[in-house]
TrEMBL record:
One of its GO terms (molecular function) is ATP hydrolysis activity. It comes from the Archaea. Keywords: Coiled coil. PANTHER family: DNA REPLICATION AND REPAIR PROTEIN RECF. It holds the Pfam family AAA_23. Residues 89-110, 219-238 are annotated as: Disordered. One of its GO terms (biological process) is DNA synthesis involved in DNA repair. Residues 97-106 have a biased composition (Basic and acidic residues). Residues 6-216 form the Rad50/SbcC-type AAA domain. InterPro entries: P-loop_NTPase, Rad50/SbcC_AAA. Residues 162-210, 438-491 form a coiled coil. This is AAA family ATPase.
Length: 833
């Protein structure tokens, strides 16, 4: 499915209506800066995605997109429509999108799969490359690069799963540490109960059993061999009917209760102030984030401050003039200072968060102990303690998740606080009343007799031992789970690295191939995208000095060509066998002429016949290089003139391609307009010889005045072809069966081009008389005489150009062989060692 016709109404720089007709082929749009070239590509992108990429860039948040999408000087609907044609299925589809509606008509579910593929590719963003996009994947931070690549390669769920395993591991680590701490506390209490310092579990159990049996003996009970709370006091009579108040008669529960009450008083007094400080800092962070003051930009700005001269007035990335009141270097320094201040705020926020966590963990320790020690049946206040314990745990969970983890900086609201204020919510002071009630009961209790304490001690030891065994089992369970999750995480990461690494290796192989074809002097240098825990590191070999991040050692032109290679490699990988649109918007501005020619060859050889390529440029030479190397694959070239607010985008008819020029000459001849025919013929011949000269590497003698004659290009083409055919015949063996036919074809070309180009030279005088001589001197040239001139020039075109692919004959050298051919090899395909 390919784009046949695009109609644009009142969209961006296009006023009224403009029709772009690539006719299902490749195309190049040539025009000066600001002529509206990008508006055509934006219209295609808008039609397919309902989006304009330029308006999604940083700093565009306050822009009213509907107003900017519409042409500012036009009335009427803003609509983009297109006809896509599938030649293999002999089927065409008309689609459109209006700014007033924004929905695709017809909807996607009614479209054929081949067009849906184009739309899906466009929604990935891999169908179009602009100058702003070139450096994004080259100089971006590794984490951001991996996010972009993951989205393009449809791998985001892989990272989600890795993060899910990571979160599970961290949660288990936390649970394991909590269980181990509780087990340790219980072990210490058992040491106190057994009056033993042993660190061995079996020795402690032995000491506890001796203590229990000693107490049982004092009450007339027999020795036991197991510590079981259900049976530890069997056959032992209680000295009193009830011992329910035993817990608060002991010293430690009393101390824990006092500590909890004191902690609660401090919490009510100090936590509101701390929460106000935290929420104030969170508000400041939100404001800074909304102002695009992001900590992830700090490293790039620090690098920018080092490389931007103090007096710089041009942005080093986009090469645009810096029009702000503040100098560029000072603005970068100011932004860097803002980011450092922001980082300081984040650090302070982390400290406050940890202080609150420590405060709540202290109270939770007191609560946990009291809830376990006090019997709820005899101490109804325990219900309030348990409720408050859960709210403290929930508050800790929300804090341990992190205040700045996802950079959303939501207001901090803790379950122990009222929803809209930092005041502590204690449910009408119920927790205070409960703790005061427990203290009062402690003060009113009489001392238990020694017998009652010993009787209670039997049960306490058994319960604490059972608690220890349960905690020990929990530690073993969590440790086993953690080990399993760690193994799964390692295996997942290894598999992920293997899978993604293979994908990245495939992509970087393509990048290296494209890059070396553009920079043959660097053939053999390698590029790599390495999967790491923190991102995707892109590195490029710099001659023999090792691998470096590209932006640290390469020039702007090299970075642009590397960015183009990476984009093309991703495009080719992602689209596999289902090729789609490939839009390139003025992407070689900083690349020199020779390397642009190599880029044109790469596009011609690797993409021109498989993708529908639409390229914009302001550079006429780049357009000619694309044409001569076959990147258009016979497609059209559109020239735009200077844009104006009144007329919008308009095509210029002042330039016609060589292969179209002959029709113009024939039309002038048919109308008996000899003067116009002579002008058109000379123009066509000059362009033809210039392009051929460039394609075969012909050399024109330098003229300081910059004025070259048509004969200069003819002589350069003739001399170069003479050299190349001579080399070919010298290297081809006339007597070898496999080379005899090639030798004869080279000899035919050698015999033909001299005669044809000589005829052009002989007829050139007649053309010049029509073009340069004063009126009256050329009127004697009849139509019949001019037809002889036309035929001589047309024969030169037929010799040097291929009607199939529209390219001129071109010369290339490879390892071990040379070629003289057209792009499609139908007209010429000559090869020799």
């Amino acid at each position: 499915m390919e784009l046949q016709t695009l109609k644009i109404q009142n969209f961006r720089g296009i006023k009224d209506e403009y029709t772009f007709e690539p006719d299902c082929g490749n195309a190049i749009i040539v025009g000066p800066n600001g002529s509206g070239k990008s508006s055509v590509l934006e219209a295609i992108n808008y039609l397919l995605t309902n989006n304009i990429r330029q308006l999604d860039r940083p700093g565009m948040g306050s822009v009213n997109k509907d107003e900017i999408i519409r042409n500012v000087n036009a009335d009427g609907d803003c609509v983009v429509s297109a006809t896509f044609n599938d030649e293999s299925a002999d089927d065409s589809v008309d689609v459109q999108r209006s700014v007033d509606d924004s929905r695709l008509d017809p909807p996607q579910e009614d479209l054929p799969d081949s067009l849906l593929h184009i739309i899906e590719t466009a929604q990935q963003g891999q169908h179009i490359l602009t100058r702003d996009d070139l450096l994004d994947l080259i100089i971006t931070q590794p984490k951001s690069r991996r996010q972009v690549l993951s989205e393009l390669l449809n791998l985001p769920d892989i990272d989600d799963r890795r993060l899910s395993l990571q979160r599970t591991r961290r949660n288990l680590e936390g649970e394991l540490e909590d269980a181990k701490a509780k087990r340790e506390n219980t072990f210490e209490r058992l040491q106190e109960l057994a009056d033993s310092n042993t660190d061995e579990e079996h020795e402690l159990r032995k000491a506890l059993l001796e203590e229990i049996n000693g107490l049982r003996e004092s009450f007339g009970g027999d020795p036991i061999e197991t510590i079981d709370p259900e049976s530890v006091r069997d056959d032992v009579e209680s000295p009193l009917e009830t011992l329910s108040a035993q817990a608060l008669r002991r010293e430690r529960p009393q101390v824990e209760l006092q500590n909890f009450v004191a902690w609660l008083d401090r919490l009510e007094e100090e936590l509101p102030t701390e929460l106000e400080r935290v929420n104030s800092l969170l508000e400041e962070c939100r404001e800074r984030e909304s102002a695009d003051v992001s900590a992830k930009r700090l490293e790039l700005l620090e690098l920018g401050e080092d490389v931007i001269p103090p007096d710089a007035d041009v942005c080093p990335l986009c090469q645009q003039d810096w029009d702000e009141k503040m100098p560029l270097h000072e603005d970068v320094r100011r932004r860097r200072e803002e980011l450092r201040e922001f980082q300081s705020v984040l650090n302070h926020l982390d400290e406050l968060q940890q202080d609150i966590v420590n405060r709540l963990e202290e109270g939770l320790d007191h609560l946990t102990y009291l809830v376990k020690e006090l019997d709820e049946d005899e101490y109804p206040e325990v219900e309030e303690l348990e409720k408050f314990e859960r709210r403290v745990e929930e508050s800790l969970d929300s804090l341990r998740g992190g205040l700045i983890h996802d950079r959303s900086f939501h207001r901090l609201e803790l379950p122990i606080c009222e929803p809209e204020a930092p005041k502590i919510d204690i449910e009408d002071k119920r927790i205070v009343r409960a703790s005061n009630s427990l203290q009062s009961r402690t003060e009113e209790l009489d001392d238990l007799s020694e017998a009652e304490e010993e009787y209670e001690r039997i049960d306490t030891i058994a319960k604490r031992w059972q608690e220890y065994e349960e905690l020990d089992e929990e530690v073993d369970r969590l440790r086993s789970l953690l080990s399993d999750v760690e193994t799964a995480e390692r295996a997942f990461i290894e598999s992920r690295c293997e899978v993604i690494g293979a994908i990245y290796e495939d992509i970087t192989d393509r990048v290296e191939s494209y890059y070396c074809s553009i920079h043959p002097d660097e053939d053999g240098t390698e590029a790599s995208i390495e999967v790491t825990d923190t991102g995707a590191d892109l590195k490029k070999e710099f001659y023999d000095a090792g691998e470096y991040p590209p932006h640290s050692v390469f020039s702007e032109g090299h970075l642009d060509s590397l960015g183009l290679c990476l984009h093309l490699a991703l495009t080719d990988y992602l689209q596999h066998d289902e090729k789609s649109l490939l839009l390139l918007d003025d992407v070689v501005m900083s690349v020199d002429q020779d390397h642009r020619l190599q880029i044109a060859r790469t596009i011609a050889e690797e993409f021109a016949d498989e993708y529908q390529i639409i390229i914009t440029t302001h550079d006429e030479l780049w357009a000619e290089q694309l044409r001569s190397q076959g990147a258009l694959y016979g497609g059209s070239k559109v020239h735009l003139r200077e844009w104006s607010i009144d007329d919008g985008v308009k095509e210029s008819r002042s330039y016609i391609d060589v292969y179209e020029q002959w029709e113009t000459v024939e039309e002038a001849m048919a109308d008996d307009e000899m003067e116009r025919a002579a002008h058109e013929l000379r123009y066509a011949t000059e362009r033809m010889l210039q392009q051929t000269c460039m394609s075969i590497g012909g050399k024109v003698e330098y003229d300081p005045s910059g004025t070259y004659r048509l004969s200069d290009f003819r002589d350069a083409v003739s001399g170069r072809l003479n050299t190349l055919t001579g080399r070919a015949k010298d290297n081809l063996n006339l007597h070898a069966d496999d080379e005899e036919e090639m030798w004869e074809r080279v000899d035919d070309l050698d015999s033909e081009f001299g005669k044809v180009l000589n005829d052009v030279g002989q007829q050139l005088n007649k053309v010049n008389r029509r073009v340069h001589w004063s009126p009256g001197k050329w009127l004697t040239l009849s139509l019949d005489e001019f037809e002889e001139v036309y035929e001589a020039h047309k024969k030169a075109y037929d010799l040097l150009y291929c009607d199939e692919c529209g390219s001129s004959i071109r010369y290339e050298e490879f390892d071990g062989y040379c070629e003289l051919r057209c792009n499609c090899r139908n007209h010429y395909d000559l090869r020799w060692n």
